[in-house]
Design a protein that fits this description.
This protein is an alpha/beta fold. The model has no long low-confidence stretch (mean pLDDT 91).
Length: 422
């Protein structure tokens, strides 16, 4: 008769913590609340009991929505257990990587279906690396603002400025939508891709050719506010480094404006970025030294694409290490040996005469091809051996099959380069 349910006191939590049974100001203000966040494993133990006690003692439900998340497991999907030794200690992790790195890693792994999270050291390192990226882009922004003080102010925004502002408003609207729908993982990953890819890898580099420090600062401050709920400590620190005195939490949430989104500009710039990637890939495949600047020829039957290439010529030159661009609206005879790529309907031609020693490159590729074929022969010898297939662990056999696939892909890529040069 004197035994209570283990979860009895937890069931009283929504109102007992606010001064109940006294009618306090806190109880009046905070009961009921809007959202409860919990794991699926204690729905009966906790959630249903809070609802029961809420109706019994307060006459109304304690919350209107329940957000159910998964459990944190190890990288193989096993439940963390001290006896198994697969526990990730949050205090040790915070000490090693920071609280924000752990917070970002966990948030980015959340799925809208409430599936369990597979957490690994590698994921937390990824969170730490992302925070380092934020820190470095803030330093670059401050440096750019300082340099701009001694330079005459330019009127208007560059094409890169207009593009990143359009993308920024796009991301604000998408992030807000994700958070409103409790899609925390989608919001974190969207911001990661925008910050690392479009903002740091592309716009920051383009801004060195033609960009506004004020746009750089505006987009960075917007990013910090959007990221603040996920990584509060680093964003607070960087907010003050950008000259703000008030807490970032008191800043207004960014208001994305669909009228600021230029879909046509975004589409054109997406093609230009793919063109730059293609030129970089050709250089890497042909082993062109970084020190050598290339000449590039473009052909497209589409007027809009030709205009985009022309308008972004300076960005292409800087980001793809090109010193001369020829744009053709009619396909003409090409100068000697060229390497080619196609983006949309844009044909890219990279003359190789001044870039590489063809004979030397053919020898290098032949040597690499021989090494790949020798390794393929060794792996196939294993996979064609019945004893190995029967006795080796499943993971080991699968690992060899994966190696075979990778080598086949590599062999195909080398052959393509070799035949192209020949």
């Amino acid at each position: 008769p004197d035994v209570l349910d283990t979860w009895f006191s937890s069931a009283l939590w929504p109102f007992s913590t606010l001064g109940w049974p006294d009618k306090t100001e806190d109880l009046k203000k905070f009961y009921p609340t809007s959202v409860l966040i919990t794991g699926y494993d204690i729905l009966t133990f906790w959630v249903s009991r809070m609802l029961t006690m809420g109706y019994k003692f307060m006459g109304k439900k304690p919350f209107s929505k329940v957000y159910i998340h998964g459990l944190v497991r190890d990288e193989t999907g096993k439940k963390m257990s001290k006896s198994v030794g697969n526990v990730i200690d949050p205090l040790t992790t915070v000490e090693q990587y920071s609280a924000d790195a752990l917070r970002f890693a966990l948030t980015s792994l959340i799925t809208s279906g409430g599936q369990d999270i597979k957490l690994s050291d590698e994921k937390i390192q990824g969170g730490r690396n992302f925070l380092n990226k934020l820190w470095n882009v803030t330093r670059f922004t401050l440096h750019s603002i300082e340099l701009a003080k001694d330079q005459p102010r330019k009127n208007g925004h560059s094409m890169a400025d207009k593009w990143i502002l359009s993308r920024c408003h796009h991301v604000v609207l998408e992030t807000t939508k994700h958070l409103d729908n409790y899609e925390f993982g989608e919001a974190a990953n969207l911001l990661h891709d925008f910050v690392w890819g479009e903002f740091c890898d592309w716009y920051v580099e383009m801004s060195k050719v033609g960009g506004s420090p004020s746009v750089l600062k505006f987009v960075l401050k917007t990013i910090l506010v959007l990221l603040h709920p996920i990584v509060p400590f680093v964003t607070e620190e960087l907010w003050h480094k950008l000259g703000e005195d008030s807490f970032i939490m008191t800043a207004e949430w960014p208001a994305g404006d669909s009228r600021m989104i230029d879909q046509e500009l975004e589409s054109r710039m997406a093609i230009v970025l793919e063109v730059i990637k293609s030129i970089r890939n050709i250089r890497a495949e042909m082993n062109v030294p970084v020190s050598k600047k290339a000449k590039v020829i473009f052909y497209s039957p589409t007027k809009e694409h030709l205009e985009a290439l022309e308008n972004c010529a300076e960005y292409i030159k800087f980001l793809a290490r090109v010193d001369e661009i020829t744009i053709m609206d009619k396909l003409q005879k090409l100068p000697g040996q060229v390497s080619t790529a196609v983006v949309n309907d844009i044909q890219i031609f990279l003359p190789l005469a001044d870039l590489i020693d063809t004979d030397k490159e053919l020898l290098r590729l032949k040597k690499e091809l021989d090494q790949v074929r020798a390794e393929l022969e060794r792996i196939r010898g294993k996979l064609n051996n019945p004893t190995f297939i029967d006795k080796a662990p499943f993971e080991v056999v699968n690992n060899e099959k994966d190696k075979e696939k990778l080598l086949l892909n590599k062999q195909e890529a080398i052959l393509k380069q070799y035949n192209g040069l020949k």
